[in-house]
Amino acid sequence: MKFPTGITVYGDKSYRGHCATENQEQATLFAELRRRWPDTIGRLALHPRNEGKRHYRQYAIERAEGMSTGASDVIIPGDPCIVLELKRRDHTRSKLSKAELEYLDAAQAAGAVVGIALGWEAAMAAIEG
Questions:
Q1: What's the distance, CA 15 to chain centroid?
Q2: Proportion of the chain above pLDDT 90, given as a percent
Q3: What is d(CA 22, CA 100) in angstroms, rounded to the nearest whole number?
Q4: Cα 111 from Cα 121, distance rounded (Å)
Q5: Which of 40, 71, 96, 97 is found 20 to 30 A from 107 (Cα to Cα)?
Q6: Using alpha carbons only, what angle is made at residue 128 by residues 125 and 129, rounded to the nearest 5 degrees?
Q7: Residues sharing a CB contact under 8 Å with residue 62, sequence separation 6 or more, in sequence order
């Protein structure tokens, strides 16, 4: 994965080796957020489910209902809003799509704290920031 300029990358970019899948990293992150801050960040943090392939009709319905292509994996409303794209700890096993980058750029332009987190621990470091 090539890292974009202007977006902070949290985590060890040089790490190579065994690592959890993105879904496992995400589940661990949300469990930890809810454990540490059950009444604040853990309650507010969300993951928009917009992955996967869809028939064009299903995509049109979801888009009309508010789905935003490329929406980041972790969105925490607040002041400021935190928007993180979560990738595997070994970033060579992940991809960053054009839509994901465009979403991060738009969130940053709107005043959110944005970043790419390499693993759940890197995401926690960004949130604790």
A1: 19
A2: 78
A3: 15
A4: 24
A5: 40
A6: 80
A7: 50, 54
